[in-house]
């Protein structure tokens, strides 16, 4: 049980944690939608409420190095668990470096099946290290050859979201050369299909199953426009759809003499090589579920399927996985539940799993006393609706706070991140303004209830909307003089603001050198009058000392 603090009984009112997804603190105001947006509520908070900066990238959230940006999975895991775990990116890299991945039963079963069939790899084709890393794929192809696999087919999801927006050929061209180099009379490895990650396969949280169906038709059934190679496909599709960035490119199939090179058939082996789960779960279900009903699969090949990691620890999806996921234990959701604290979690579909599944350590189950509310997201390009569902989430939070039923409430506003990923600067400033407006309403409800709110973010995104020149730190320009749009997350810190309407003027925050997202859970515990769980990183709450 969490112990009660001697020094502080806890705030009487509700405790609200607001995650402004993708809201980093810019180093340079030029090209920053955060600096540019009109945000009167946040301005007021920064002027009059205790606030500090938190690390939200690199080793502070369990990434392999401090060159790695943060992301929603590692950010929400750290906030929810109050601890930093070596995350998928690091675990897979280690398992490959130490060779433990090859010794595992899952890899042996994959290779065993592939020796008499075809070995397919499907996944995000970049070095973004958010969902996957192309080096992991390369290592697996090499190892498959060494272990006697004869045929490898790769289904590439073009990124442009965690890496520069039109960088697909920087990955495709060298990889095609690698595959040509490693192929010989006894080994044939080629790219077989692909498409933009926001167009096919990588949907999340049941937002858009038709995306997954398009992916299935492309990778499994081999249906779609045919090209001689992946690089030829990318070039032709860019010419056909000018201005379309990589993540949105339509699907394509690689074929010879009109026949797809790599449709997926009975007896084949399939590895989904993303380590992150949110966008891997739906396609995984399509492969492994016997009574799948989300779309008509037309054909359901009997394959040996493995995920890079297990994507959902409660549902055991998938059962076969190459690397054990981080064993995230003792999350704040679990221990607040054990303390009898009622909890409310809310977001719109695009981020709903962030405040539930990621928050609770990649588990889709629910702890006693937790209530979840999902606001359905629109299925549109978000630069066309930068306000997204901020107003509706605020409505739900205001009602939940006013109901008096919940002691701890959490929500995620998706806008800064989802619109930030479009690379559209003007839309991103509107996204930030929509969050500010919604936040103002939530804070009014917190005030009326005599509560406290902690306002933070999981990582940066809207804070840098243009690629910055590494030396000058000024926005980099394209050949035509326009700024180079940046769609990825940033390495910037995020705010932690304490909005205090509890009537206890002692409450403050301390800035420590390594303050990070994993300090939030203990801070919330202290605000509730509890000592932190021993596993959690230190609280940042001060009581007027
Ligand atoms: O999945 C995505 O949309 C991006 O790769 C990362 O964004 P997120 O970590 O904020 O979800
Ligand atoms: Mn995020
Ligand atoms: Mn994001």
Structural features, described:
The protein is α/β, with parallel strands linked by helices and 545 residues long. α11 links the parallel β9 and β10. α7 runs parallel beside α8 and α14 packs parallel to α16. The two termini are 27 Å apart. The strands form three sheets. Strands 3, 4, 5, 6, 7, 8, 9 and 10 form an eight-stranded mixed sheet that branches. The protein has a seven-stranded mixed sheet with strand order 2-15-14-1-13-11-12, sandwiched between helices. A two-stranded antiparallel ribbon has the order 16-17. The chain has two domains: 256 residues, Alkaline Phosphatase, subunit A; 219 residues, 3-Layer(aba) Sandwich (2,3-Bisphosphoglycerate-independent phosphoglycerate mutase, substrate-binding domain), CATH 3.40.1450. The chain has 17 helices and 17 strands. Bound molecules: 3-phosphoglyceric acid and manganese (II) ion (MN) (2 copies). The site of one manganese (II) ion has 7 residues, from α3. One manganese (II) ion (MN) binds next to α3.
Short account of what is shown:
With 545 residues, the protein is of the alpha/beta class. The protein is 32% helix and 16% strand.
